[in-house]
Amino acid sequence: MSNGILMVISGPAGSGKGTAVKLLRERIPELALSVSATTRAPRPGEEDGVHYYFISREEFERRIAAGEILEYTEYCDNLYGTPAEAVRRVLESGKDMVLEIEVDGASQIKKKFPDAVTVMLIPPDGETLEARLRGRGTETDEVIEWRMARAREEIALSKDYDYIAVSYDGRADECAADLQAILKSEHYRQSRMTSVTDAFFEN
């Protein structure tokens, strides 16, 4: 049995990653979703092992040193990362898995999983992204300006990704369908089909 495919989806804040991944998993119920570990405290309603694995900073740093964290980043004095064991266990079972992570984390994953399929999710233009950020009504002009500058930096790195998907307003399901098509096509990549071609010559 061949390993499952690891799909990494990232993009700037406001790109619609969360919605796209949710709709993708509705289309592919068997698609596993990686649960991140974090050192921040749980928020009301969050469950350990469901929303995040909540661990101490000391334990997180121990796991980094032991190579048990595939990728990590620090945000607002808290560490966030992807536990290695859970990802490897799912992939070795033959199931596909999706990771929704930041751009810097995606580059770390690609180094450890060269066969991972990376997708950059972007809005159609800067005006759309800014409108989405302002539409939240939760951030100051200063924060929005920072997010827009950060988005330009992140999208500039799209050349390092395998695919780019565009999230148009009001067309989230279409975006999820594009992601589904990417994942399906990757199953037929020549390097993943060697067992089939080898079997042909064994007969």
Describe the protein's architecture and organization.
Strands 2-7-1-8-9 form a 5-stranded parallel sheet, with helices on both faces. Strands 4-3-6-5 form a 4-stranded mixed sheet. By secondary structure, it is of the alpha/beta class. The chain is built from 8 helices and 9 strands. Helices cover 44% and strands 19% of the residues. The two termini are 19 Å apart. The chain has helices at 17-27, 57-65, 84-92, 103-112, 126-136, 141-155, 172-186, 194-202; strands at 6-10, 32-33, 37-38, 53-54, 69-75, 78-83, 97-100, 117-122, 163-166.
List the topology elements.
Elements: E1 6-10, H1 17-27, E2 32-33, E3 37-38, E4 53-54, H2 57-65, E5 69-75, E6 78-83, H3 84-92, E7 97-100, H4 103-112, E8 117-122, H5 126-136, H6 141-155, E9 163-166, H7 172-186, H8 194-202
Parallel strand pairs: 1-7, 1-8, 2-7, 3-4, 8-9
Antiparallel strand pairs: 3-6, 5-6
Helix pairs in contact: 1-7, 5-6
Tell me the strand order in the biggest sheet.
Answer: 2-7-1-8-9
Quaternary state of this entry equals single chain
Find the structural class using helix and strand composition: alpha/beta
Low-confidence stretches: none
